[in-house]
Design goal:
Length: 261
């Protein structure tokens, strides 16, 4: 009787060991299917509410079949060279347009025009220097009175500098940052020789005429609650110490509200 109970106990242990081995094998298979490499995966989502996949009495009699990887054909991409965009130039309407018509050399009188092709180029002419001569004829009346036109009002009455020359002088210096010796070289290339002292004198006299505009600009610049300022050191030469300079400062103020300096 004792031997029979012992045999039953051993049989139960064997059955339990078989079940444990079976569950371990199923667990290993499921882990490979879920967490294994892509080629070994069979499912991507697991429903936790699905329950058990296998009954206790069910055995894994045949292995699962692997899915064949899908073959994707990608068409060859042909690169196209980007087209160069035409040069974009902003030209105001007040710029002069000069139209030139170029006819074919073999044009005959019986040809009939069916259209035209228009091409535009931006051209520039060098600065044209000329001498302005003012002639004021004198007349005498029957009563013996001499009549002559009044003198034209000039910016610098006792100089040979016209208004356009003074405007160019100041614009080239402050807007285009051309020092005087470079400006004089430009005149020299056109055959016009101007003494440096004469050019400096024109600048000094023209600057004094612009002082009222400068004072107005100063008032508009500082008339605000917010001003920016910066100092720039600059060597200053005086008559007291010829050949030497002392350290000076140039203060620049900006009104950011009106955007003026």
């Amino acid at each position: 009787m004792g031997e029979l109970k012992e045999q039953e106990y051993i049989d139960k242990l064997i059955i339990s060991d078989n079940k444990i081995s079976k569950l371990e094998s199923e667990n290993a298979t499921l882990r490979r299917m879920i967490f294994g490499p892509k080629s070994e995966k069979f499912i991507t989502e697991v429903d936790v509410t699905q329950g058990k996949l296998f009954d206790d009495s069910e055995t894994l009699s045949e292995p699962a079949t692997q899915e064949k990887p899908e073959t994707i054909t990608i068409e060859k991409h042909t690169k196209t060279k980007p087209k160069r965009k035409p040069l974009e130039i902003t030209i105001p309407d007040n710029i002069e347009r000069r139209t030139e018509i170029v006819e074919p050399e073999n044009k005959q009188e019986d040809f009939k025009q069916i259209g035209e092709e228009v091409t535009e180029f931006l051209e520039v002419e060098p600065a044209k220097i000329y001498v302005r001569i003012i002639v004021r004829p004198k007349y005498v009346t029957p009563q013996g009175t001499i009549v002559i036109a009044d003198k034209l009002e000039m910016v610098l009455p006792r100089s040979n500098a016209g208004t356009s020359v003074l405007v160019k002088l100041i614009t080239d210096k402050f807007a285009d940052h051309l020092p005087f010796h470079r400006q004089l070289k430009i005149f020299k290339r056109e055959g016009v020789i101007i003494a440096e002292s004469t050019y400096n004198g024109w600048f000094t006299k023209a600057s004094k005429i612009l002082e009222p505009l400068y004072q107005t600009l100063v008032e508009q610049t500082v008339n605000t609650d917010y001003v920016k300022a910066d100092e720039s050191p600059i060597p200053v030469q005086t008559r007291d110490k010829k050949g030497s300079t002392h350290r000076g400062y140039q203060w620049v103020y900006q009104n950011p509200i009106k955007n003026i300096v």
